């Protein structure tokens, strides 16, 4: 950001300074130094410098024309929010002698003489975006904020923001969160010496998902959030913005262009590099001068608005056909090498003719068509040999959604593309089939410490839900700033505290809610983060206690957590949590309240049965059944995602399975081993498999993996069945449907695999997880889902089929 030399007057008078600065707030005497509050992103170096500095009623800010305007503005705002009635901005050398006793804050470049002297040995790293902070208490009450550059000054203020602590020591909020200032409260600044800089040059997000793009207001909020967490990159690339992709040749309408201009300015104010992406690959004629002119004109319009970073992504397109006959003549028959030659030609032209000729513009970025693997091909070989070395290459990891990214993988990718790669990390994006119905609230993880030395940066592709995405982006910002110090669990708590405005009870409620949204799918069968690990551990302990006879204690312990689940939505909606998050998460919060209440009532039913009151247990079980039904009826409306109006998933595979198991235990109270999922030890078979694809084979319906599925051929009469490992009394069957579900089906049982009895006929209203409760009578050996009528033109598709009961033996 360019600094404007501001006229800085001295708004100061000795009498008012003494009266208002020293007497308006009677500062509490400096207490013994306490541990420093955590700062996020984690600094490279932070230590105690001495006692805390009291925020006096009047504060002096010493700044000049080389002080970053955005940093100065934010500093004044924070001081006024934390106890300063008046903040005077004065020039270096114009600090009046009467200022002694007032808090004085120096802000500016590291080389300014008064700043260099006040740092007292606290080093400002000689690297882009580096900064230093020094806070000195006692009678000096002096804070020094120094930046290697303008961004460094801004980041120094962002660190200072997290060092405010209440002077009375009554801080019930988690550390390293936005403080909740009060007009009548006294504040201190923790005495700290910070020397800090980022590990990765590029840090932030790429709005690159399919589905409803973010609104203008949501994007403006994101720019402020990125400034707070020291993320410096935002790439504008929403797939469903028609002017980004399908209508890339057409200029933006005036109103949209005005919005983009405001967004560029907001990004700049937060030291975020607004990167404008145009994705022409679906229709571009690489050899056509007119198309190249149109592309550059599109970039020029954003350059005129202040944009200084550009991307031409060529992902998710076909590279085995040409869009025009001219490309066949220019580059040969379509294929990998020919496509790469055409793309190199276009990208080099944009880099050399547009980017290099426009002052202040960062190197061009691109996303190759082969973006998610480590296989050397003719395409990559051609890119490696011909692409201008200045062009920045994006890579998504070893898959579209990689379960991990290691240093070795990054080095191999860089070798394939002939340059350090820039990671487009497809987390927490939720625009693909395996994420249907999910918020992704697990912490950013499984990226190896040390990657900063092997990448040019990481940007996260967020969800269609911008405020809920802040949980993962908070982690991305922390990891890319200091990857060797990154702790996912600690970061998750700070992320939730950030959303909760520092309120402790709201933070705890968000952590409980987030645990139920912890599963992170890949495009394959195995999620890269598990579902509900905190709840799963408690459920495991519950069954261990139950099966060893300590049943009352098991119910008491798990009931406390079930109550926390039930209360979490109300607490989250209580006004402390960022309003945008509660809007994003509304359907999931609605469903969580019902699932939590269902769990509480189920545990009450178990407790009643333990006390010998079977009738009361049956009543409570019926209440739990009704709550579960209502929870399954909740729908995500309005639907922002491509998966549409579906059931919000809440702790699926953990919470719902527990309820089924507890249900069966109640029904089979006297049966040893009652409540187990017998399907996992059984053998699955089916009438047929869609296109005979092995990945859709019957064995996937009972493999215990919600990421795999069985799919039938396209007939109403298709079926899938489980041959149990031994005869069993069956009390419940669960069917987790994919989008291709049944409009009507029957659950059948058999004692020999030949003769079948229909025990239940179902006509579900929606595709979700059905729980079919049966009367556990005589033992059976087989359980079948017999299709009657399909809901779609596809076949039937089931993620999992569970059979719950007790072995007859």
Description:
The structure is a single chain. The model is unreliable at 1-31 and 172-183 (pLDDT under 50). Strands 19, 20, 21, 22, 23, 24, 25, 26 and 27 form a 9-stranded antiparallel β-sheet that branches. This protein has an 8-stranded parallel β-sheet with strand order 14-13-12-11-18-17-16-15. The protein has a 7-stranded mixed β-sheet with strand order 1-10-6-7-5-3-4. The chain is 33% helix and 18% strand. It has 809 residues and is an alpha/beta fold. Helix 16 packs antiparallel against helix 18 (586-610), helix 18 (586-610) runs antiparallel to helix 19 (614-633) and helix 18 (586-610) packs parallel to helix 20. It has 4 domains: 14-196, Chitobiase, domain 2 (2-Layer Sandwich), CATH 3.30.379; 202-499, Glycosidases (TIM Barrel, Alpha-Beta Barrel), CATH 3.20.20.80; 501-667, Methane Monooxygenase Hydroxylase, Chain G, domain 1, CATH 1.20.58; 674-809, Galactose-binding domain-like (Jelly Rolls).
């Amino acid at each position: 950001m360019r600094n404007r030399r501001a006229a800085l007057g001295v708004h100061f008078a000795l009498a008012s300074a003494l009266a208002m600065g020293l007497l308006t707030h009677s500062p509490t005497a400096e207490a013994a130094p306490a541990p420093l509050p955590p700062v996020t992103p984690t600094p490279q170096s932070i230590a105690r410098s001495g006692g805390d500095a009291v925020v006096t009623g009047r504060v002096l800010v010493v700044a000049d024309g080389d002080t970053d305007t955005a940093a100065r503005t934010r500093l004044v705002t924070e001081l006024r929010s934390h106890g300063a009635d008046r903040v005077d901005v004065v020039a270096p050398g114009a600090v009046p002698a009467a200022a002694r006793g007032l808090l004085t804050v120096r802000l500016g470049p590291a080389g300014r003489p008064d700043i260099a002297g006040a740092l007292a040995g606290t080093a400002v790293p000689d690297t882009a975006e580096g900064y230093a902070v020094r806070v000195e208490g006692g009678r000096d009450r002096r804070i020094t904020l120094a930046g290697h550059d303008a961004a460094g000054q801004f980041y120094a203020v962002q660190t200072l923001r997290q060092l405010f602590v209440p002077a009375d020591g009554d801080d019930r909020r988690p550390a390293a969160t936005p403080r909740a200032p009060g007009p009548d409260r006294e504040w201190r600044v923790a005495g700290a010496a910070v020397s800090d800089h980022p590990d990765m040059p590029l840090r932030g997000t790429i709005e690159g998902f399919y589905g409803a793009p973010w609104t203008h207001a949501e994007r403006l909020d994101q720019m402020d959030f990125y400034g707070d967490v020291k993320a410096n990159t935002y790439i504008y690339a929403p797939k469903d913005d028609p002017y980004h992709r399908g209508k890339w040749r057409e200029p933006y309408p005036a109103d949209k262009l005005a919005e983009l201009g405001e967004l560029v300015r907001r990004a700049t104010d937060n030291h975020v590099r607004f990167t404008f992406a145009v994705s022409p690959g679906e229709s571009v004629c690489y050899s056509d001068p007119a198309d190249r002119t149109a592309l550059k004109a599109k970039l020029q319009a954003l350059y005129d608005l202040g944009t200084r970073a550009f991307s031409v992504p060529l992902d998710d397109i076909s590279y085995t056909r040409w869009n025009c006959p001219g490309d066949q003549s220019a580059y040969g028959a379509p294929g990998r090498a020919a496509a790469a030659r055409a793309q190199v030609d276009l990208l080099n032209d944009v880099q050399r003719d547009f980017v290099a000729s426009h002052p202040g513009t960062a190197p061009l970025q691109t996303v190759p068509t082969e973006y998610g693997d480590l296989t050397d091909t003719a395409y990559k070989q051609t890119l490696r040999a011909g692409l201008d070395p200045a062009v920045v290459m994006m890579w998504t990891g070893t898959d579209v959604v990689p379960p991990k990214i290691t240093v070795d993988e990054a080095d191999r990718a860089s070798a394939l593309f002939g340059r350090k790669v820039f990671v487009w990390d497809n987390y927490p994006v939720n625009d693909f089939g395996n994420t249907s119905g999910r918020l992704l609230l697990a912490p950013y993880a499984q990226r190896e410490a040390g990657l900063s030395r092997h990448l040019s940066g990481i940007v996260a592709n967020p969800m269609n839900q911008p405020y809920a995405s802040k949980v993962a982006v908070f982690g991305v910002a922390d990891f890319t700033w200091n990857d060797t110090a990154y702790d996912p669990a600690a970061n998750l708590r700070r992320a939730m505290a950030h959303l909760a405005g520092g309120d402790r009870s709201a933070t705890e409620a968000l952590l409980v809610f987030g645990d139920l949204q912890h599963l992170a799918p890949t495009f394959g069968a195995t999620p890269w983060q598990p579902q509900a690990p905190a709840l799963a551990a408690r459920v495991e302990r519950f069954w261990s206690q139950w099966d060893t006879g300590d049943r009352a204690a098991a119910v008491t312990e798990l009931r406390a957590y079930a109550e926390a689940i039930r209360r979490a939505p109300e607490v989250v909606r209580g006004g402390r949590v960022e309003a945008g998050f509660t809007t994003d998460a509304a359907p999931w919060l609605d469903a969580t309240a019902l699932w939590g209440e269902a769990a509480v009532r189920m545990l009450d039913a178990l407790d009643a049965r333990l006390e010998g009151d079977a009738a009361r247990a049956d009543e409570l079980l019926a209440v739990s059944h009704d709550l579960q039904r209502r929870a399954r009826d909740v729908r995500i409306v309005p639907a922002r995602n491509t998966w549409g109006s579906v059931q919000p998933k809440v702790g699926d595979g953990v919470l719902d399975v527990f309820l089924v198991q507890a249900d069966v235990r109640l029904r089979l109270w006297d049966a040893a081993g009652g409540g187990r999922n017998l399907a996992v030890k059984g053998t699955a078979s089916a009438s047929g498999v869609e296109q005979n694809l092995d990945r859709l084979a019957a064995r996937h319906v009972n493999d215990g993996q919600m990421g795999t599925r069985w799919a039938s051929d396209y007939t109403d009469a298709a079926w899938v069945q489980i041959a149990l490992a031994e005869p069993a009394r069956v009390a419940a069957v669960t069917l987790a449907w994919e989008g291709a579900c049944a409009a009507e089906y029957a659950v059948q049982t058999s004692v020999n695999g030949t003769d079948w009895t229909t025990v239940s006929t179902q006509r579900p209203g929606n595709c979700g997880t059905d729980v079919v409760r049966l009367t556990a009578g005589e033992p059976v050996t087989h359980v079948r889902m017999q299709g009657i009528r399909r809901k779609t033109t596809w076949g039937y598709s089931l993620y999992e089929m569970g059979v719950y009961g007790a072995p007859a033996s």
